């Protein structure tokens, strides 16, 4: 990204933004010999390759996804313009159902978690967009109107992609005979989040987003920017995910792990802060229908609504998300020999 108006940053982030150096300083730690993510082609889905990617990685790169390049570019450009507006403007002009957040990956709808400590806040801001409610986002602001239209078009493409991938996974897992399988992924639950990770002088001491798993069935990430930062945990090692233009990153969430009865894993990932460059990403999350009951051999029956309620409770009482562990079946003790 180009020169930044620091007034666009939340106040907590402003004093700690350095200027980019002019000498040949190496700005990023480079992780060498990292295996490339599995590559899945949406136009000719290979069930064997898809199953291996889900089982062994939980992350894969998607090509031939069918989203027009000009739509990706226009949405990125519009998002940049909005996020470069003043902090006060963003707080005031963004109205329900879209919400503005900072310092947190939108775990609540009220916005950011402002803290006096720089070490326990995520270095991120953005917009949370529940797509089914987007028609309610009515405004006379021309930029916001264009933003809504772009989000609606982009959301339709992401719903198509998510449904196509999930249907292929359902066949691999032999879920197609289940009446519930169609409720395991509900387009009406789709949410878009536009994230901006501001420059941060204390990048070695804080994170753009803390290590976490997604609660979704599937998450679809657009890394159109050429600024890295996304890392995933594999075999107890953090691996850097290289941004490649016109590709998407798909990762499995907690609900997919439960649906697959732990055959597939919801993988921990994080975003590193950057001292000298901003980073923009757009992520789509989709979930089961609210009342759809997930029940497999390793999990007690629960709905996504139950899961969400438990996550909020855990965050309030322990400070972090416990996740699927709360819903695990208690395994009977082996009889004494």
Identify the notable features of this structure and list them briefly.
alpha+beta, 6 helices, 4-stranded antiparallel β-sheet, 14 strands, 8-stranded mixed β-sheet, 337 residues
What percent strand? 15-25%
**DSSP helix fraction:** 10-25%
In the predicted model, the low-confidence regions spanning at least 5 consecutive residues are 19-33, 106-118
Oligomeric form? single chain
Q: How many strands?
A: 14
Assign an overall shape: globular
Number of helices: 6
Rg of Cα set: 20 Å
Biggest sheet strand order reads 1-2-10-7-12-5-4-3
Largest sheet: 8 strands, mixed
The average pLDDT value, as a whole number, equals 86
Please give the alpha-carbon distance between the first and last residues.
Answer: 66 Å
Give the structural class.
alpha+beta
Helices and strands, in order, run as EHEHHEEHEEEEEEHEEEEH
């Amino acid at each position: 990204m180009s020169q930044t108006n620091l007034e666009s940053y939340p106040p907590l982030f402003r004093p700690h933004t350095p200027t980019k150096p002019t000498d040949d300083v190496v700005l990023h730690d480079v992780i060498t010999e990292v295996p490339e993510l599995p590559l899945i082609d949406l136009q000719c889905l290979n069930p064997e390759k898809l199953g291996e990617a889900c089982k062994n990685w939980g992350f894969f790169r998607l090509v031939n996804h069918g989203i027009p390049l000009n739509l990706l570019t226009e949405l990125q450009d519009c998002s940049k313009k909005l996020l470069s507006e003043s902090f006060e403007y963003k707080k005031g002009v963004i109205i329900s159902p879209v919400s503005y957040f900072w310092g947190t990956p939108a775990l609540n709808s009220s916005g950011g978690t402002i803290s006096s400590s720089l070490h326990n806040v995520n270095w991120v801001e953005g917009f949370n967009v529940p797509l089914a409610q987007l028609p309610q986002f009515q405004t006379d602001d021309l930029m916001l109107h264009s933003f809504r239209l772009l989000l609606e078009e982009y959301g339709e493409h992401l719903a198509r992609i998510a449904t196509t991938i999930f249907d292929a996974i359902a066949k691999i897992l032999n879920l197609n005979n289940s009446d519930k399988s169609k409720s395991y992924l509900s387009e009406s639950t789709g949410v878009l989040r536009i994230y901006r990770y501001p420059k941060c002088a204390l990048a070695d001491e804080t994170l753009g987003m803390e290590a976490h798993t997604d609660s979704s069935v599937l998450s679809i990430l657009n890394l159109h920017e050429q600024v890295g930062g996304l890392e995933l945990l594999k075999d107890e090692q953090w691996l850097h995910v290289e941004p490649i233009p016109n590709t998407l990153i798909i990762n499995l969430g907690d609900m997919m792990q439960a649906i697959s009865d732990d055959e597939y894993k919801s993988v921990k990932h994080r975003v590193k802060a950057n001292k000298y460059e901003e980073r923009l990403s757009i992520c789509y999350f989709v979930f089961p229908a609210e009342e759809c009951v997930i029940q497999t051999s390793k999990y007690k029956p629960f709905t996504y609504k139950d899961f969400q309620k438990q996550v909020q409770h855990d965050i309030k009482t322990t400070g972090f998300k416990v996740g699927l562990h709360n819903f695990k079946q208690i395994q009977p003790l082996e009889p004494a020999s």
